[in-house]
Amino acid sequence: MNTRRQTLTNQTDRNQFIDFREILKKYIYHWPIFLLGILIAVAAGLAYLRTANTVYELTSTILVKDEKKTSEQKVALPELQQSTSPKNAETEIEIIRSKDLISQVVDSLQLWTSYKTKKGLQTVDLYETAPVKFVLLNKTGILNSNKLNVLIKSKNSFQVTNLSGQPLTVDFGKEVRNSFGSWTLQSTPFTDQYIGSEITIDLNDPDLVSNNYLKALDAHLLDKSSPTIGLFITDEVAKRGEDFLNDLVKYYNRAAYIEEKRKTKSTIDFIDNRLASLTGELNRAESNVAGYRSSQGLTDISTQVKADLESSQANQSKLNDVNVQLGVIEELERYVNSPSTNESIPATMGISDPGLNSSIEKLSQLQLKKTSLLAITPPGNPVFEPINKQIEATKGSIKETIRGLKKSLISTKAGLETFKNNFQTSIKTLPGQERQVVDMKRQSSIKENLYVYLLQKREELALSYASTFVDARVVDKANISDIKWPRKSVVMAIALLCGLGFPIVIISSRNSIYNKITSRRDIANVTDVPVIAELSYESDQKNSIVVNKIHHLVGEQFRALRTNLHYLHLNKKPLSLLEPNVHKEIALTGTYGYAVSDNEHKGRVTLLTSSVSKEGKSFVSSNLAASLAASGKKTVLLEMDLRKPKVSGIFNLVKDHPGITEFLQYNDIPVQDIVQATNIDNLNVIGAGHIASEPAELLEKERLSELIANLRGRYDEIVIDTPPAHLVTDSLIIAREADISLYVIRQGHTGKEELNFIKEVYETEKLPNMNIVFNGITKNKYGYGYNYDNSYYNEGQRKSMKVAWRNLLSRF
After folding, report:
1. pTM for this one?
2. Contacts of 796 (CB under 8 A, 6+ apart)
3. Ramachandran quadrant class, 36 (left: phi over 0; alpha: psi -120 to 50; beta: rest)
4. CA-angle at 734, arms to 730 and 738, nearest 5°
5. Exposed, middle or buried: residue 252 (CB in 10 Å: 0-12, 13-18, 19+)?
6. For 472-522, how does the pLDDT look when each residue is reduced to its tens digit (9 = 90+)?
7. Are 659 and 639 in contact (CB under 8 A)?
């Protein structure tokens, strides 16, 4: 039943979550390491603060043009807007951070050269007060990471190491050659202050220095709604950082100015070339218009069209008059050619010929005269003959006149018809001619407008070219905004973190490679062997009896072990496993549910063993035996570790007294001759005797069974201290005589690999009723143990200085 309960307890332990308080206590146990780590880290932090060079953050603010024009604002020929091309702040940031611009600043300030000297523990940069100036005359090698150690000898000379490694004194301004080329040093106003001092000149590749400044430079918009750009950089020398930012803005403006000049000059040249070309094109266009007008006989198209229409109308009017006259002439011609004399003479309206009009008038009078005579005279009267002859003669004259006049009118009509056709043709061709003229005038106008536009732009560009406006206006010059590093609070915080972190790493790393059993959970994860007791570790109680001390923690734990051992020795079995004939005995004894074996009234044998040495097996055996004796039980402790016996030393017994080895070797030695009394009531000890050469063979003898049987009759409790089971087989041989086996595991000493061996022994039942005693528990050190300490039992007691010092060292 106890085994089952213990197994369930083990299973419960396996399912428990990590107790962070226990982990914290495990680290707190090593407080001296943390204290030492904090002291070292704080000391290192203070030393660093005294020796570290201050790193400043430099900042500058500039305002750039930010012209983001919409499509409606864009003009034709945008290529001519070079001097006022749209800019935006984001683009200007990329230009400011360009490698070419930064390289110009690095070369201008010669930032690839640094001058340093030692002042105490600090290395000081002499950017502002350098006693010399390095001038590279001819580069033949790589500059990167070259150092020159220069000793200022006097105001006029310095000492440097030459190629052969010998010191060389050189005058300022004199050429020196070495692996990277020829160079010279020039004196400065500060040379006198460093006479006798050694200066280190660090030379680096300008390209690499530019890359470093490019990485260090931070440029971003301070406000997205305005084109204000902030420039930030860190430097150990504030003046150098200020010079860098100020020169960066200066070279940015210079580059923008040069680029504007270049683009403006290029545009002006283009306009000049285009104007020269347009002059010829405009002349040719105007000549084409004039030539076309001349060839087509055109002056002003609208005036000419009006004149043609008026001429056409006049010609049509004349043509109508001629047609009327022809009609009148034809009527007259028909009349004069008609034989009838009764018709009246047609009207001659429109006929302006006086001869014809006179003849017609004469004819009209003759006919009237004839008509008058006919009224009084018959037609055949001879009086009509002269009148008829005059009429015929007049008609003949009229015919001749009509014939000539008709011919003239027909000719006039033909001319008018021709003029009419010409006018119609002219009017029809005028729109096409007008279109040609308009096209020519349009081309001429376009070229003229372009010519005027280019002239205007050239004047604007000329003014822009003459101007000196810059793109970036400095809002704030470079200045120190803050001390970037070292910050005392940050350094000390890092020091404290390191002082706490490194011990944690050390302890965790040590625990990770420290493959030892430290908690009950480690045992339960591998094997189901019940843990019957846990014993705390007391360094000042090593190899001593502690159960006879009043109010002692470990003594109380041994008493708890004694109680648990008593229940194990009861050896109770469920009724379902008993024989039917024992039920009557159970009824008589009043034992319900369990039967008591015969071994209950004989001496009980408890065997103690372990995996390896120094697990406290002998200490546990001795104190367990003392605890059993203190309870009034007659107890004997057998020192059966025949190879390395320790029990006799614990009880200060005579070492050469006959013991188990002699009893097993000689059959004539009685049991009472090997038993030794101790200063503890009810406790005897049987020592190992002399060291045997072959202990395993001795233990195989029947004398061992005789000894145990004899002791069962003499004592209530027999406790056997055996050798480590994983090292020798002695304990497995002795186990055949034992009732209970206690397997001692020591916290922080027994390796986890031993659990597999313990599991095998338990599953194969090589040790009877096997249980584990978890010994040497230091809760604070390993984060596992009882939730109480020895303060309750040791109240008012003070540990010796030696013990306190030993406890302190154990915490490292």
Report:
1. 0.54
2. none
3. alpha
4. 150
5. buried
6. 788 888 888 888 888 888 889 999 999 888 888 887 877 677 788 888 888
7. yes
- When mean pLDDT is compared across 327-336, 612-621, 759-768, the lowest value belongs to 327-336
Centre a 10 Å sphere on the Cβ of residue 408 and count the other Cβ atoms it contains: 14
Q: What's 766-796 look like in SS3?
A: CCCCEEEEEEEECHHHHCCCCCCCCCCCCCC
Looking up tokens 């420290």, which residue turns up?
514
**What secondary structure letter does DSSP report for 66?**
-
Around Cβ 46, how many Cβ atoms within 10 Å? 14
Segment 647-668 mean pLDDT: 90
Q: Are strands 675-677 and 770-777 parallel, antiparallel or unpaired?
A: unpaired
Q: How far is CA 415 from the centre of its chain?
A: 100
The yes-or-no verdict on residue 796 having pLDDT over 60 is: no
Strand partners, 771: 742
Residue 561 to residues 554, 582, 773, Cα–Cα distance (Å)? 10, 32, 9
- Map residue 344 onto helix, strand or coil: coil
Structure tokens at 665: 């070797």
What is the sign, positive or negative, of the torsion defined by CA atoms of 669, 673, 675, 681? positive
Which tokens belong to 233? 């950089």
Backbone angles phi, psi at 75, to 5 degrees: -100, 165
Find the distance separating the first CA and the last CA of the chain, reported in whole Å. Answer: 43
Nearest by Cα to 350 from 389, 411, 302, 405: 405
Where do we find the tokens 């039980």?
Answer: 633
CA–CA distance, 351 with 401 (Å, rounded to integer): 12
Helix or strand run (H / E) with residue 482: strand 472-485
Given the structure tokens 């002006």, which residue do they identify?
268
| 263 CB neighbour count, 10 Å cutoff | 18
Q: How far apart are CA 646 and CA 655, in angstroms?
A: 10
